[in-house]
Amino acid sequence: MCLSGFHLDQTTQDGKTREEEGIHVLHRTMELGITHLDTSNVYGPCNEVLVGKAIAGRKLDCLATKSAFKITSAGFGMDGSREYVRSAVGKSLKWLDVKQIDLYYQHWVDRTLPIEDTWKALKEQLQGAKSRTRDAEADVIPTCRGLGIGIVAYSPPGRGLF
């Protein structure tokens, strides 16, 4: 979910900042029982900082974020390299102000290198993370299971709900 950055203007019609409005939306969402939040580093550091502020002191079942999709001076690009994954995880931990991300995954596929390279880089980042069981189609699971990686559907039905 992107509550800041390039998707939205930075102020609302009533003069509130997008951060204030975003934190209010997330607090209300959690009050209503939503316990799985998903963001991305490509939404900008302001979005992960916003999510971090909103979840501070609150219990979630799953905090998810992702990388491999990035904004460069040339526009949007993909980077599934080990170095980028490691850097992106570190930045997300800092911006979210957490010690652990429950689910960290690949936002888009970097077709310039074998997908296994990105998945291995993601697996390296699992140190200390909780293991969770996820179900998916039988033809996808064997590869992911062998690497210890979960699967998340792109743009689940809840997109736009908030």
TrEMBL record:
Q: Which residues form the NADP-dependent oxidoreductase domain?
A: 12-124
| MF terms (GO), sorted A to Z | oxidoreductase activity
Q: Which InterPro entries match?
A: Aldo-Keto_reductase, NAD(P)_OxRdtase_dom_sf, NADP_OxRdtase_dom
Any one annotated GO CC term: cytoplasm
Q: What Pfam family is a match, any one?
A: Aldo_ket_red
Keyword line:
Oxidoreductase
What name does this protein carry? NADP-dependent oxidoreductase domain-containing protein
